[in-house]
Every structure is written in C-alpha cells, then in structure tokens.
Amino acid sequence: MALLEVKELTKLFGALMAVGNVSFSLEEKQILGMIGPNGAGKTTLFNMVAGLHRPTHGKVIFDGRDITGWKPHRVCRLGIAKTSQIMEPFRAMTVFENVQVAALHGGGMNMAASRIRTDEVIEFVGLAENRDKPAASISVPARRRLELARALASGARVLLLDENMAGLNPHEIDEALVLLRQIRDSGKSLIVVEHIMRAVMGISDRILVLNYGARIAEGSPQEVANNDEVIEAYLGKKSAAM
Amino acid sequence: MVILWIGMAGCWNITCGYTGYVDFGPVVYFGIGSYGTAIAMTKFGAPFFLAVAISGLAALLVALPIGLTTLRLRGAYFAIATFAFAEAMKQIALEFDRTFGVSFFDGSHGITLPIGDHGNEFFFFCILAVTLAVILMHYVIEHSKFGLGLKAIHESEDGAEISGVNTTGIKLRAYVTSALFLGMFGGIEAYWITYITPTDVFNVHKTVQMVIMTLLGGMGTFLGPIVGASFLTIISEILGTTFVEYYLIMVGAIIIGIILMMPKGIIGTIKEWKAIRFI
Questions:
Q1: Looking at per-residue confidence, does A169 or B249 come out higher?
Q2: Are the beta carbons of B40 and B114 closer than 8 angstroms?
Q3: Does residue A108 contact residue A139 with C-beta atoms inside 8 Å?
Q4: Cβ contact (<8 Å) for B145 and A111?
C-alpha cells in the first residue's frame, strides 16, 4: 500500500478546471517529480493535498486514511508538509522561532523537546549560522532551506516542495539537490515541483507531467523526456513545414 | 483605576496585541459581566464573589459562539463585526424588557446594586487580583507554545496553518480568555459603582481606551499594556487637574505624537532600539 495516494483529484473554480482527474501514488523514500507549464495546476494540486483547497471531486489517502478535505493544520500534524512558491516565513521572528513553531504545533512537542528538535533540524539543513537572525534578513537560498527546515521540524513524512529551488544559481541548486537526497535517505518521501529540468530529471525516481490540469504523462525521467506530448506541451507542435 | 485599566488594556492585548487582529467589541464582555453580576445580585440574591464568577462564566459562554463566527473574518471585517456585536448588545439591554414585557435588564433605568459595607480597599484588591491574572496570562503567552502560535498567526496566518498551528482554535482561546477577565472586571466595577446602565457599561469609549492604551504601550508585548495604561491614566490625571479646560486636547495631542514617533508603541520601540526580546 502506497504512503500517499491521490485518486481522481479534481478542482473546479466555477467553470475553470484547474485540476482534472489526476491520480498518482507515492511510496516511502521515493522522489516524485512534477512538471508542467505554468498554470498546469501543480500548485492547486499541492494545495488540495495539504488541505488549503477542498477538492471538487476525488480523494487523498495518506497511510491508508482518507484525509480529503482535512484542514491544513491537521494534515500537517499527520505528516504532510508543504513549502510555498511565494515564501511566507514569519518575518519578524528568528529562524529558530520559525522552525520552532513547526516543531511545536506541527510536531506536537512541548517547549523543551521542541528546542532540541529545532536545533537538530537547523543543523541538518545547514542554517546554524542564521539561527538567531530575523527570518526577513537572510538570503534567498537560506530562506529556501528555512522552508525545508519548517517542513522537517513538523515531523513530516511527505514533503511537497513547490519550486523550492526557484531563485537559486547553479551552484546553490547542486547543494539543494544534495540536501534533498539526504532528506530522502533519512526516510522521507518528496514530491518536487520544479521548472529547472536538470534538477527534476536528476533527482526524481519518477516524473508526473501535468498540462491544463490533466496528467499527460508519467514514467521514468527518460521516458518522460522522450514523450511527444510532453515535448509538445513545452515547445509547441511541430510545424508541417519543418 | 490605573490597575483596572492595566487589566483591561491587557485583555485587549491578549486577543489582539499578539495576533494583530483589531477587536472593536471587547467592552461587550465588560457589559455582560456588569449585568451578570447586577442581575445575579438583585434578582437572585447571589453573594458578590459568586456573582462575579457567574459573570465571568457568562462572558466566556457568549464569547465562544461569537468568537467562532467572527474570528473567521479578517482585518477590517473582524473589527466591524465585533463592534456591531457590542452595539447590538447595548440595544438588547436597552430594549429587551420592553419587547418581551419582562423585567430582566430594566432597560434604560439601569440596575441599582445592593450597597455593601466594603471600603475602597476591598475593590482595589479584587481588581488587583484579576489584573494579576491578566499579567500572568501575558507571561504564559510570552513563553509558551500558545504564544508562539499567536505571533505566527500575526506574521502569516496561512503559513502558520500549514506549519500545523490550529489557527481558529488558538484565536478562540485568546478571545475567550480575554472575555472571561473582562466579564470579571465588569462585575467588580458594577458592585463598586452600584448603579449601571446599558450606555455606561456597553460604552464603546471603554473599548477605545483599551485599544489606545495597548497601542501606546506596544501591541503584543508584555509590558505594553502596563506602560500604556499607566502612562495614559497618569497623564490624564495630571493634565486634567492642572489644565481643566484644555486637558483633553493635550492628551489627544500627546497620543498622536507618540503614535507618530513610535509607531510600535513605547515598549515596542524600545525593544527595537535595544533588540531586547524579553519585555
């Protein structure tokens, strides 16, 4: 039985079908990449899994439990954490406090335990030197790692990473990939949404491709890269004249 | 009086200072408390302490459904909704008896409470007790999971929610706690003054004072309400006796001056300067 199963998940905003009938499953210690042009419905899909949007149709099943429509904080406490495309750190609070909130509320710890866990997580993601700085003052790569730290501190088993590498230069991307592999090796599963192809292709065990809200391909990075429909979605139809 | 206002401003700080929500209706719980005690003592002959306990409980029970409904709203809508509720309560107290033909609130006649034989010190200690409880609550907030949750909500409510913070639950806890204390203050003051009317006890002026004192002192800080309430009450007293005619204008000017120069309140600004984190 898969760790996370999404069945025929659909979201309609009025007449606009943001996500249509998407199904997939995620195993333990697996990295699933999710790609697709902007507006394909990736963030909406994440939001439905995390509880921020109620699906119009379909189910989300985590560890055998139907969590469809659960409120975000309950989903977080159960073990699914999401990072945001637009980062929303707690700006006036320190990096330490930002992570501590996740440990306390998401992880259900008391104050003493949360301090220990927070320090562990901060060490793991490499933010130790930023520990006591206000979250608003740290660099972009550091802020991305803060998002990861918050997700880990809440005790998540599945991390939904929504363009966690946006804004990083190639060197920083490589470092991020190393960290993601370490996270996977420590027992977590990841769904990674990215536009940076070499990152997604390099790290994913499997890739899911969305376009206009629907799944158009799924398979290994190789298979997906050679899939006609995928190429068409990104580059457009081959003209007859060519 | 200073102690009373420290306590009341503190209540507003608990609900709104930390989360950043602006509640414009807290006086409603003060009023419910006053009426609770008044009715308990006059209609049911309850002894004072029991009456105050009942008032606090009444305020808490009303705060639950009101909190659940209004706390879903954000920003200005929350302010308007809470304000509307306070005004509605005032109207209910005024018109209830006439509409339903009962003698419960006694409408605009007001209720006269039995005059006990307690000196001013008695009331001083009652109010001090509740204020100390409010201050203790602040201490708990500053050092607890609950408090961090409140601050997180202020920074980013969605961010807090996906980090596992039960935002509705936490906001409600703060709101209801504040209501409980306000109800008790209302009850104590009712017995002290011995005569209450709806326009007095549901007066938005009290809300405004709570808000200004907390803003002045510093929203979301431990010392904020204490400093704000003390400062404003003392300044008003001093200026009020020295410049009987103009003191209101001077107080207003001072308030505006402070807010302009120190937008985070007195304590808030000091915290920024010194980067102190524990006041």
A1: A169
A2: no
A3: no
A4: yes
CB proximity A71 to B under 8 Å: yes
Percentage of chain B lying above the pLDDT 70 cut: 84
Q: What is the ipTM of this complex?
A: 0.81
Which of these, B67, B192, B73, B196, lies nearest to B130 by C-alpha position?
Answer: B192
Q: What's the confidence (pLDDT) of residue A94?
A: 87
Residue A218 host element (H or E): strand A214-219
Helix, coil or strand: residue B206: helix
Annotated domain spans of chain B: 2-203
Whether B143 and chain A come into contact, CB under 8 Å, resolves to yes
Q: Taking Cα atoms as reference points, which of B218, B210, B224 lies closest to residue B263?
A: B218
Q: CB B162 to CB A110 under 8 A?
A: no
pLDDT attached to residue A242: 46
Inter-chain CB proximity B164 and A91 less than 8 Å: no
Helix axes B247-261, B224-242, angle to 10 degrees: 150
Q: Which domains occur in chain A, in start order?
A: 1-70+189-236 (3.40.50.300)
CB-CB neighbors (< 8 A) of A76 in chain B: 161-164
Residue B105 has pLDDT above 80, yes or no: no
Q: Please, is A127 exposed, middle or buried when counting C-beta atoms within 10 Å of its C-beta (0-12, 13-18, 19+)?
A: buried
For the segment B30-55, what is each residue's pLDDT rounded down to a tens digit?
777 777 777 776 666 667 777 778 88
Q: Does any CB of chain B come closer than 8 Å to the CB of residue A115?
A: no
Provide the β-strand partners of residue A22. A9
Integer Cα distance of A136 and B265 in angstroms: 21
pTM, rounded to two decimals: 0.81
